[in-house]
Structure formats: C-alpha cells, structure tokens
Amino acid sequence: MTGRVVFVTTELEPLTAGGAGVVVARLAARLADAGRAVTVVLVGGTGEAPGAYELVAVPVEEESPASRSRAAAASLAALGLRAGDRVEIQDFEGLGYHAILDRDHLGLDTVTLTVRAHGPTDRLLTSIGLDPPEFALQRAMERAALGMADAVVVPSAGFGDDLGRAYGLDPARVVVGPPPFEPLHARPYDATDPPLVVCYGRLAEVKGQVDLMRAAIPVLRDIPGMRLRFLHRDGWHIAQNRAMSEVLGDEIPGDVADRVEMIEADRDELAESVAGASLAVVPSRFESFCLAAHELRSIGLPLLVADLPAYADHLDESTGAVHYDGSVEGLQAVLQELLMDRGRLGRLAAAPPPVVGDPVAVYGAGLPGPRPAPARQALATRAENLVSAAVPAPEPPRRPIQRLMRLIPRPLARIAVAVLPGWLKERFRSLADWRVEEMRRTASDRRARIRSAIAAGRFPELDDPRVSIVIPCFNQGEYLDEAIQSVFEQTMNDFEIVVVDDGSTEPSTRAALGALDWPRLRVIRQANRGLPGARNAGIEAARGRFVVPLDADDALEPAFLESLVGVLEESPAAAYAHCWGRYFDHMDAFWITRPFNPYQLLLSNSVLGCVVLRRDAWRQVDGYDETLVEGNEDWDLWLRLLEAGWDQVQVRRPLFRYRIHGNTMSVDTLSRLEHARTELRRRHPALYDRAAVTKATHWPWVTVVHRERAPHGQDLDDREDVAAFGDTASILRSTTGKIVVEWDAFTDPPADVLRLVATALETHPRAATATVEGTPVAWRRWALLDPDAPLPDSVEVGAKIDAAFEPTLWRGMLPTPGWASPEDLPEPELEVIRQPPEEDGPLPAWISNEPGSR
C-alpha cells in the first residue's frame, strides 16, 4: 500500500500530553522519512507540525467525545481522500465513531478506515472495577467504532486476541502493528544488597501502584533494609477524585515510610534512576503493550509483571520477565520469592530483551481493505443502536395527554400538529406523539375490518390450500398479530397459516401464542431449534404447494401472494419468486434489490428472505440447513437450489414489509458477511469452483464493443467481445460486462489497455467513466442503464494511450427495469434505497482460493 496515511488523534507529542501522542508522532515521522505522504489530524489541539508531515489542527465546539468525533469526521471529509489512502484513528473516546458510521456520506467509502487500539476507556474502567454513568456514551462509541472499522491495529497479538473476544471482532480484521519502540542503552546489572525494587511509569489506578504498595509492605518488613522506589509522573485517581500521589502516600505505613521513595522522573533519567536495582515491577491491571516494561528490559533489569494478554507475545522468563496472577497476594508471594533468589534474578537480567518488530510494516501491503457495502451498512445500524442505548431514554408520554389524543378526530389532530409553532410542536410531541397515535388507530381499524370479514364467512377452513404461510416465532409475540393480519389482508384468499413456537421463553410471547384465535391458523410448538429449524418444521407441516417463510416481526403487502404465486406458476423452472421490500417501524423507505445474477449470488445475497417457494424444490434440496442458526440460512438455500438446477423469478414491486427495530437477526447476519462468504464457499465447493465459468457468462469484467476492428493481443481474458454494426444502445441489451469499453477509441493500444482502463474504474467506485485526455473511453454499465445512478465522477487513466474519437455512449442512454429507479412506486415521495448492482470486477481471491481459506 502506497497511498496517503492519515492519523487522527487528540494527543500528539510534543504539542499535547499522552502516550498515544508519542506513538502517533513517532509513526508519522518514520513514515514521512520513508517518503510516504502523511497527515496528522489533531482534534482539539493547536500548534505547528513537529515533524516532516502535514498537521491539520481541528477546533471543537465543546469538550465532549461526541463533539470531537463529529469534528474528526468533518475534517476527514474535507481532506479529499481517495481509494488506496488509509486513515488510522485512536480508539479511546470513540474518536472514529462518526467518521466510520457516516463514511458513505462523507466520501470515505473507498478509504481504509482503521482504529488503533491504544487502550479503550471501556477496558480501563472494567479493569479497575468502575462503571461511572457519565462514561456510558463514550464507552459505547468506542465499542461501536472498533466494531465498524475496516481493521483494528493492535500493538500485540495477545492483546488483539483478548480485545477480539471482548468486542466480537473479526479475527481477520485484527492486525498487529507494534508501537515504535526505541530501546534505552543497557547497563551492567549491579543489584545492591539490601535489594532495591523499582516501579516506573505514570501513576494511575489502572497501573496498579496501590497493589504494589500493599504487596510490598510485608516484604519490606521481612527484608531489613529493602527499598521501594516509585519513578513516576503523577496522575489522577478517578474513584477518589484526587491525585494518585496522595492516594499512594496514604498507603505507606509509618514503620517503612523511610524506605519508600517517590521520585518524579522521565525517560531520559531512567537509567540513572534505576542504578543498583534488583528488580523492576510493572503491576498494571490492564495494558495493551506497555512501553515502560520494554524500556526497563532494554536497560537490563529483570521484570515482574501481571499475567496480562498484552505480555504474552514478548515477556516471559526467556526474555527476562516473570508473571504473577494479578492479585495482591500473588504479587507479594512472587516478589518475596524472587528477592530471596539472587541467582534467578541474575539469569533473568542476562536474558535477551524481547524483539518488538517493525512498527511500519503494517502500513505496507496486506492490510484488509474497506468492508463490503452490505456489511458496512449492517455494522452502522448495529453501532447506532448500541450508542442510542447508552443515551438516557426520554420520559414516557403522560397518560392524560395520551387520552386526549385518542379523543381528537383525525383531521383536527393533523391540522393542529401542522399549525403549531416549532417549539410548541416539539414540546407537544414529548408529551404524546400523534404519529404513534395514528399507527395505533390504523392498527385498530385494520383489526376491526379483518374481524368483520371473518364474521361474514370470508375465510372458511380449507382442506387443500394453495399457499402455506409459515411464521416462526421466538420471543416476538408483540409483533405476531401484525404479521398475521397482513396475511388476512391479501388479495388472494387461498392460504393457510402455520405458526411455529420455537421454544419461546418470554411470558408475553407465550401468552400471545396461547391467545391466537384466527381461522386457518395452526400453532406448532417445539424446543428451540433456531430460525432454519423452525422454518423446516413449519414447512413440513404445511399443506400448500407453495410456502412463504414470513418472520414474526415482518409483514406482507396485500398483493404479495397474488403477484408472486401467479408469476411462479407461470415459471415452472423457477423454485421461488421474490420481490422488492419496504422498511417500516423505525424507518420508512423502499428497498430495491439489484437484478438477480447467478454469479453475484456467490458474492452476496440479493434475494429477500421472504419469498414464495415451491415446496417440492425445498424438499429436493433437504430444506434449510439447521446448523446455520446465526443467519445466512436463506442465502445457503438459494445456492443449493442454484446447484440443483433451479431458476428464480423476480417481481419488481415492493410487496414485502421488513421491520427495522434494534439489532435484528438480518443486521447481525450482514455484519458477518465476509465470514459468511468463506463459510458458504466451504459448504459449496463445486459451485464456487465453477465461479469463473459462471462469471464469464453472467458478469465478465469488461464488455468490449468494436466496429471496425476486433480487439487482439490483450492480456485481459475476463471479457466479452461484441461486434457492433448497428445501434449501440440495442446491442448493450444483450451484453453483461460490468464495464463497457469502446474499442474504436484506441488508435494504437498497448497490450494492457483494457486492464488499465478497468482497473482505473475498479479503484474509483464513484466514477461513471474512465477517460483519456478527457474523452470517455469506458463506462460503468450501471451508469448507462440508470440515469440516476449515484456515480458522479470520472477517472483519468494515468497512462500514455492514444485515444481520439466521437463517443457513442452517454449516461442513462438505456434505462432498464431493475437497474433504473422505478417510476411507479406507490408513494414516490418516500426514500428509495437501492442495492448497488455492483460487485468485484475481477474474480475475488477468496473464491479462487481453496475452500476454507480466506
């Protein structure tokens, strides 16, 4: 990787204090000296760049983590970063939260956004047993930023494993990048007698100096003349809200006070300050690396350290360090044992110090790139929910105002809310929200209409229903009635409903299931088997030729059955019919999935899970895989149906309603997209081994359109060649390449011209065209087929290529259903969110690798 490196920090040596600032300053200087373009964004600080790199000082409106995070995001958006650039943001204070959350809107979608783990506040507070409520938001922002990052850079593998377990991080996106450690000059080991024990580093609760003091008191009393020396910079004790030096001083009893020394010292004075010491103790309760420990070992002192994951890679007896169990009692026992064994101390001192490794190697090739768009969006949703949960909830509406809202006629209430001044409207909404009341009234009206139709005999029992709606339910009783009502509102009446209670444990859900009294509805109860097992059980009990897997928290539009069953009956080769969706509840928008493509189905799931499915096809492939309890059971089913030779059919209408609320299973599933890809590749080796052939048919990287002469001698095989002797627009209807190149643009093309042009567009996902001296020579297909495709840019091909001609392609020249924005949506004023019909141009490495590899 050779792009620009941007560090985002609130600390920078020597402009501000803090260990993270030392790491950032040293890394920035080393990279700049090596010729890399480096920018340091200092949030909330000022000053001149202290090194050979660019410094951007960013003011903040207020001293809060949220304000600093927003300022960091705005500053990154203003830098004009491009694909290949890399941003590294500190972990503490959640500084990267807003930049990673809003990356697609900030133009950072092609930039690798990483978080460097210096030591999250969350882990620090946990290690000292504190949970102050005022840190709740900051801790949530930290956790969210780490979870969304393209990569988390950790100073040691042991700490990375520990952090990954604590936060559920993808191990493939946790990379080791040691801090720039500068060893001190070693000096001969000249331990005095009686012994001197030293402790060096900033005073803080998390650094454990109080633990050392308590452990050392009995040892001081037991070994006459022994001394304990704290070499420190003072810090603050959070729990007691006073200086650490005062807290530590209170721990020193009078009978040993003359043998405990408190000396302010810094790194430059360390070698002299530890002269004659027998042992150095680093009693930290939490560390991510600990430069102080490595500096003490570089001088030649033996170490006694707590058994922390951060030390697992480097510090053990072979490198001069002994571990204790982290308790005061354990520290006391090992401290006394070592001081009584001078021979062992000598052997530890003579051991070679640990080798840390190259701190800038991680800035080369091999770093994970930006996450796939579906995973980014899912992780952002999960992050927003996590951070929202850390903010105190508003007071619930007052009951008298709620009752008043229910008495106001609809037209009057709408007018009143519309004409109220803004400040009063917000105050009124804080007491009772008319939108919520409108939803309640609508649901009540719907229920009354359905009950009236049932009473009128519109839904007699059926012996042979055409469609079975299978609704698994695990602790989702609050939504179940709405899902069932949406079935009874269908324009097609030939259905039954099978509800599967998948071992629900919530009393409210169990009560809701027990109260179901709808016609044509059966309830099956079983021990919890997970979503795929519940679907299989319901489909096994179903009687219809077609089945619909409907989750208990989702719903159907009235025309769902009529439209999808009808088109499936007309398509005997298709195993299932699927459609577009509409988000509801916490969000109101249309979700338009991309056109179905067998090759792209190998890369990500473009089919909504609620389909009309042939029961015979489901049975042929043995149903849903019940081991996939964490998600992707529907994607796996589509792949098995594809393997079995089945087709599909898509209805381009939003007929399925997907509820957005909290961390749904779909959100968690999408957040694990990369892991899912690897797992599905392992499960379907034959299908993925044919991926190159499938790609050549359905998604070649380049479509080459030629008229006067055919392309020869090119080194790019991943293409289709089309002779165009008529209207180019009509010819494009039958081509499938991701990128369309007009071959006649090139007068004397080099052998790699197609690869150069395709790569230029591949590395600039927002570019619609690749140009040579301003002339478009290649187009991204999406931009040709959709006038509104969000691809505003062009990229100049940086090579010496002769190109001069009159282009025959233009943006949106061929509006095509499934690619262009639909014009006949039922509520055109709503937001339309489209799944981009774009995936990797070349065959991804994880497909071409052996099954099970990344």
Euclidean distance between termini CA atoms: 19 Å
How many strand segments?
Answer: 31
Q: Characterize the biggest β-sheet.
A: 10 strands, mixed
Specify the structural class: alpha/beta
Q: Based on CA inertia axes, which overall geometry fits?
A: globular
- Supply the number of helical segments: 32
Q: What's the rounded overall pLDDT mean?
A: 88
Account of the 3D structure:
- The chain is of the alpha/beta class.
- The protein is built from 32 helices and 31 strands.
- Strands 16, 17, 18, 19, 20, 21, 22, 23, 24 and 31 form a 10-stranded mixed β-sheet that branches.
- The two termini are 19 Å apart.
- The relative contact order is 0.06.
Summarize the entry for a quick read:
With 854 residues, the chain is an alpha/beta fold. Helices cover 36% and strands 19% of the residues. The strands form five sheets. Strands 16, 17, 18, 19, 20, 21, 22, 23, 24 and 31 form a ten-stranded mixed β-sheet that branches.
Secondary structure topology:
Layout: E1 5-9, H1 19-33, E2 38-43, E3 54-58, H2 65-77, E4 86-90, H3 97-101, E5 112-116, H4 121-127, H5 136-148, E6 151-154, H6 157-167, E7 174-176, E8 196-200, H7 209-222, E9 227-232, E10 236-237, E11 242-243, H8 244-250, E12 260-264, H9 270-273, E13 279-282, H10 291-299, E14 303-306, E15 321-324, H11 328-339, H12 342-350, H13 373-389, H14 399-407, H15 410-419, H16 422-431, H17 434-455, E16 467-473, H18 477-488, E17 495-502, H19 507-514, E18 521-526, H20 530-541, E19 546-549, E20 555-556, H21 560-569, E21 574-585, E22 589-592, H22 598-603, E23 612-614, H23 615-620, H24 633-643, E24 647-660, H25 665-671, H26 673-683, H27 685-689, H28 691-698, E25 702-706, E26 719-723, H29 728-732, E27 739-742, H30 753-762, E28 767-772, E29 775-780, H31 781-785, E30 793-796, E31 831-834, H32 845-848
Helix pairs in contact: 5-13, 7-11, 13-25, 18-19
